[in-house]
């Protein structure tokens, strides 16, 4: 049952551990990727030219998307300061849903535009707001917002539980829900998978990790992960340990580390279009396949 709660104490401990490790990271190549513990899945594959790669990527991550077309929503009961962003696909539905969890700077238009891209793929997309309507404009502000959020992990779990309930209660949603996040949001997504209400999928983009198989054993769905070889904050060795811990816990996973790209490469392809477009396209295609598999 989707409404069944997991061990909240375990989830809060995991969330606190992940958030403790995230400080010092800014959130922002070849097209080769490799799966931890497996052969390089992209090795030997024909790589599309850069122009074709960009044409197949969401305009959101290329910095080319138009103004967000969805609506602001207050999905946490009795909390008008928490302002998420909801966008619904065209058509009658019902549709599966995806909850997006922002980077360290808060819910900004880049994240809203990715929500629009997911709606174009047939998902009701809700971008969560973990900072009570606030965003940061520099490192100090971003860290201050993270520190405040870290100080109340129970509130973060409750926030995402409310987000999940709000989309499940919609008549145009199938009841299937996945979460995804980047950097700060990626770590929160993983910890929410461990300690929040049951849901059907978790996609992590270079977020902080849990390496304890005992904690990971409470997961009840496959995990998607995209990471960067040149990420000094979450180095490949840590990702390998995470993948090993997932295997030890018996959790199906699709974990890839992309060569020659930096932390933040996927959400901000426009910072390095030549180097990031190929890996970003592969990660996008993997994400679409993953979401199709876990939520339909």
Indicate the topology.
Blueprint: H1 8-21, E1 33-35, H2 50-55, E2 71-73, E3 84-87, E4 95-101, H3 109-120, E5 124-127, H4 139-150, H5 153-168, E6 173-182, H6 184-195, E7 201-205, H7 213-216, E8 223-228, H8 236-248, E9 253-258, H9 273-295
Parallel strand pairs: 4-5, 4-6, 6-7, 7-8, 8-9
Antiparallel strand pairs: 1-9, 2-3, 3-5
Helix pairs in contact: 1-6
Q: Determine the strand fraction and express it as a percent band.
A: 15-25%
Helical residue percent? 25-40%
CATH architecture: 3-Layer(aba) Sandwich
> Secondary-structure element order, as H and E?
HEHEEEHEHHEHEHEHEH
Widest sheet: strand ordering: 1-9-8-7-6-4-5-3-2
Class by SSE composition: alpha/beta
Number of strands: 9
What is the fold-level CATH name, i.e. the topology? Rossmann fold
How does the overall form come out from the CA principal axes?
A: globular
* DSSP summary: helix tally: 9
Comma- or semicolon-separated keywords:
single chain; 296 residues; alpha/beta; Rossmann fold; nine-stranded mixed sheet; 9 strands; 16% strand; disordered N terminus
Characterise the protein shown here.
The chain is α/β, with parallel strands linked by helices. The protein has one domain (8-295): Rossmann fold, CATH 3.40.50. The protein contains nine helices and nine strands. It has helices spanning 8-21, 50-55, 109-120, 139-150, 153-168, 184-195, 213-216, 236-248, 273-295, and strands at 33-35, 71-73, 84-87, 95-101, 124-127, 173-182, 201-205, 223-228, 253-258. A nine-stranded mixed beta sheet has the order 1-9-8-7-6-4-5-3-2, sandwiched between helices. Helix 1 packs antiparallel against helix 6 (184-195). Residues 1-5, 22-26 and 28-47 have low confidence and may be disordered.
């Amino acid at each position: 049952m989707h409404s069944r709660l997991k061990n909240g104490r375990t989830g809060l401990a995991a969330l606190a551990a992940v958030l403790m490790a995230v400080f010092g990271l800014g959130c922002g190549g070849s097209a080769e990727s490799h799966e931890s513990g497996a052969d390089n899945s992209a090795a030997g594959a024909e790589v599309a030219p850069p122009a074709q790669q960009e044409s197949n990527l969401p305009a959101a991550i290329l910095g080319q998307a138009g103004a967000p077309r969805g609506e602001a929503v207050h999905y946490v009961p009795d909390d008008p300061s928490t302002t998420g962003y909801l966008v619904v696909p065209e058509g009658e539905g019902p549709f599966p849903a995806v909850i997006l969890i922002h980077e360290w700077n808060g819910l900004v238009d880049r994240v809203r535009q990715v929500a629009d891209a997911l709606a174009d793929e047939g998902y009701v997309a809700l971008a969560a707001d973990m900072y009570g309507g606030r965003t940061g404009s520099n490192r100090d502000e971003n860290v201050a917002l993270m520190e405040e959020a870290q100080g109340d992990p129970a509130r973060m779990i409750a926030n995402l539980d409310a987000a999940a309930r709000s989309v499940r209660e919609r008549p145009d949603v199938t009841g299937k829900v996945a979460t995804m996040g980047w950097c700060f949001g990626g770590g929160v997504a993983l910890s929410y998978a461990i300690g929040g209400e049951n849901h059907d999928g978790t996609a992590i983009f270079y977020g902080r990790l849990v390496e304890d198989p005992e904690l990971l054993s409470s997961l009840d769905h496959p995990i998607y992960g995209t990471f960067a070889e040149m990420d000094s904050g979450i180095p490949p060795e840590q990702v390998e340990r995470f993948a090993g811990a997932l295997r030890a816990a018996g959790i199906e996973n699709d974990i890839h580390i992309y060569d020659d790209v930096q932390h933040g490469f996927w959400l901000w392809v426009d910072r390095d279009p030549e180097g990031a477009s190929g890996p970003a396209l592969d990660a996008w295609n993997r994400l679409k396949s993953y979401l199709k598999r876990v939520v339909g």
